[in-house]
Every structure is written in structure tokens, then in C-alpha cells.
Amino acid sequence: MPRNPAMQCPTHAYADVVVVSASGRIDFAGAQALEAAIAPSLAPDSSVRGLVVDLAGVDYISSVGLRVLMVAAKALRARKASIAIASLQPIVAEIVEISRFHHVVDVRRDVREAVGAISAQALAAFDRAGATERS
Amino acid sequence: MRVRFWGTRGSIPVALTVDGVRRKLVAALRSASGRAFRDEAELESFVDALPFADGATFGGHTSCVEIENGGPDFVICDLGTGVRPFGQSALTRNGDGRTYHVFMSHVHWDHIMGLPFFTPAYIPGNRVIIYGGHPHLEAALRRQQEQPSFPVDFNTFRADIQFRRLEPGKWHDVAGMKVMLKLQRHSGDSFGYRFEHDGKAVIYTTDSEHDLGNRKETDAFVDFFRAADLVIFDAMYSLADAISVKADWGHSSNIAGVELCHAAGVKHLCMFHHEPAFDDASIARVLADTRRYEEICRTGAPMTVTAAYDGMEIDL
User: Which residue among A58, B79, B115, B275 is buried most deeply as judged by most CB within 10 Å?
Assistant: First the structure.
């Protein structure tokens, strides 16, 4: 399986929701990059109410990558926060279904829908940011 | 080598129910759609062509796998309920005065409960040699036949029964094969086996949980599986279950099986230790999903993926 050591996972905060954008292949190395990007949102004293992982740029996710998301889900739920994955490419959607991961993590059509499902305040911030980018 | 599966179910034996049989009959008749058959051969061909879950069953016996290597002795892995039909078959294959080599993954109930019903163990002149990595193999097997749990004491066996503890990580010569054990992650520990004979390699790895995020542990299993012709793999749970509600339950997933076997260059992954809550249609669906996942992840030659069923034979 090709490695992905250079994978970057930029994060954006919209009010109390953080969106992490992954890209490429989330194999062993990619999972480590994703884990590092997610870690600050999992801290017990974090004020983050929800985490959205944008998978639009991801063309493969391995079991190690899915495990990172599961660990995040457990940590967030422990302090009553939420996690969702969004914008899955068809192959990634298939992997999520084959692994039955859709039963344990919220899967959303796109980032906007995922953010809105967690927080109205975050959705407003997301839309404002989008309007600014378009202007 | 020929591998023959006598018990493939995990945790507890199961049986087809009235509803299960009825669903198969309805599906078969629906497929026939009123057609007439000229003769028995045409009827048999029709049944053979039905989807496996409609025309057959994965079975319900717990773990027992036979390895034929052309030698005079019998070789099996585990003493689940599948060892009862194996014993009957062995007797019809001139099983008296023979040596039976038994490799134990561990001594949890579903892997030992067939022994009291293993007829060759009651016949003088037979020899049953039980191998494993645990220090308490003999104690566990004797205990399950003590009163008040079972009426026939272990001492009733008339075959010569011996126990041999094998050290993991070293090659052992048994029944004309090279055998190596590997410690696995499972409550109370379990051991996987690598059997090599005549240029072929078979891995028996059941009741083993994998954390593929643990690079050192994963690399060790990849080395153990390396270039095997067949890996019989505990794929009891979905990945989501294996790493969430059933984490630390000591079992693995079809996804982990594909990833480990791909990394090791395995030729054939055979899923084993099926979830007892699954009916035939569920296991068939897991098989189809796993074949698709293998296709998605494939970077080299295709790997054969099957789901073991009681009575299945694989020639290597």
C-alpha cells in the first residue's frame, strides 16, 4: 500500500465546530497526520462541540484511518461532543459501508450539512465564511 | 496439502432453524419458477447453481480444521464440536491404530467442547497427541469432563493421550510438517500456527484481535503470514464492531484480514470463526463485501477470498 507521509490536514474553526480536511490516501502514515490534526479537538478541556472530517479529497481510507476516527468519536462522545464525516468519494463511501462504520459515525452528504447538524451557531459562521470567500 | 473444515462457527455451535430452512426452500422454488427438470442430473445442476445461502449452509459446528499432508497420521486444529464428525469420518478412513495430532489455539469452551464426543479417543491402540502453547492444556481438557459438568471422565479415554507444549517462534517437526506458533492477542492468550509442507504454507489464526495501528505487532503478523498459500483467519466481526463495542473481545474483522494478507502477499484468505448471530445470507453478504474490499485495496495479483463452511475442502 503506498504511503502518504506528506498528507496535510488543514483545520478551520466555525464557532464551536472544527472542520478537518484530509486528502489523498489515509493509510498508516496518513492516519498519523489525521490523528495529529484531530488531537487538539479531543482534549478534555477543549470547548469544541463538534468535529467534522471533510473527506472530499480522500480516495482511500484504511482500517488504521477508520480507527483514528473511532478513537476521536469515543473521546468526543465522552464529553457529549459530536463527530461526523462528510463529502465521501464513492470508493470511500463503499469502504465505510463494508466496514459498517456508518453505524457508529454520522455520515453527511457535505460539510455544510455536517456542521449544521451539530450547531446552528457554527452553521451561521460557516455560511458567513463562505459568503466572504465568494465576495 | 488438503485443508478440510469440520467446524467453522465462532463462540458457540448453532443450527439451522425451521425458519432458516423455509427461507431456503422458498428462495429455491422462486428461482425454479415452475420449471420442470428432465432428470436428476438436471435437478442437481440447478441446485448447484443456486446462490450458496439458498442452496447450502455455512454450518454451525465450532472450530475444527483438518490438514491432510499425504502422511499416515491425522492432523487437526482445535477440538470444537466439528471434531465429532471428523472423528466419525476418520474411523471410516481406517482410523484405528492411528496417530492424531491436535494443535490447540487455546482452551476456551468452543475450542475444546468436542473432545468428549471424539470417538477415536475412546479406542485402544489410537494415539492422540495434543499440542499447544499454554501450560494448562491438560488441566483444561480434564476439567471439562469432571462431575457435575460431564458424566464421562477424561480417564475413560482408552487411546494413548499425550500433551506437548510447543515454544512459539521456533520451528517444530510434527507429522512430516514444519510447524511454528505465534502468540496472539486474546483473553488468556491464543496461538496461531504456520504449517509448511512440500513447498506450501497454511496459517491457522483464530481468536486473534489485531490493532493495525500498532506497527510492530502488525509487522510481526505480516512476517508470520508471509507468502502463505492459505490463511484461515478469524473474521468474526465487522471492523466497526471490532474497534468499538466489541473492542478487546479478542476477535478480528474481514477488513483487517484483507489488509494483513495483502501486506504479506498471501494467495488465499479464508474467513473463519463466523459470528453465531449471522445466518447464511449475512455471511454470504460479508463474503461479497470482503471480495469487493480486496478489489479496492489490491495493488498486485488478485487474492482469493472465501468464507469457510463445514465440509469445505481446499486443495493446495
Answer: B79
